Amino acid sequence: MPKKSRLENILFTLVMAFVMVYAMVCYNIAIDKGGMTNEVFLLAFHEIPIMWPIACILEYFVVEKLATMLAFRLVNPKEDKPVFVTLAICSMIVCLMCPVMSLIATVLFAHPGNQVVAVWLQKFALNFPMALCWQIFFGGVFVRNLFTWVKKAIHHK
After folding, report:
1. What is the pLDDT of residues 10-41, one digit of tens each?
2. Which residue, among 105, 106, 104, has the nearest Cα to 114 in the 3D structure?
3. Which three-class secondary structure state does DSSP give residue 78?
4. C-alpha–C-alpha distance, residues 155 and 157, integer Å
5. Per-residue CA distances from 49 to 17, 25, 33, 45, 56 (Å)
6. Which element (helix H / strand E) includes 10?
7. What angle do CA 7, 11, 12 make, to 5 degrees?
8. What pLDDT score does 3 carry?
9. Are 57 and 47 in contact (CB under 8 A)?
């Protein structure tokens, strides 16, 4: 796997967290409203100033290291194809981030009353398949390709 500088890692975390948080906030608002509408895309920006920094801090300082450690129990970056290493790390990040971010969203936005655990478990169960698919097939691919393209453009100057 190519090494990233600290700055690249911070920028990657900021962009990836934004792409994931925005998609998941849209998804949760759509569920709450009974379906997707154009309004959902705008409503999501009300939660972004709260959820995005939380996701960035959690990802950068806690989850990235732990997810990498867990992924490397499944794959060997020196022996396995890079795509499998990337998929393992991405999957572990979702496994760690989704329950925590679902809990935070439950407490801050769902008004669960005394049903915090039940509402959190429901949110987590609904969010996990979406977060995993979005990360593996769409958002994660987009951000990694964006960073590859930017790095190539910078190095060709």
Report:
1. 999 999 999 999 999 999 999 999 999 999 99
2. 106
3. coil
4. 6
5. 12, 11, 21, 7, 11
6. helix 6-33
7. 115
8. 58
9. no
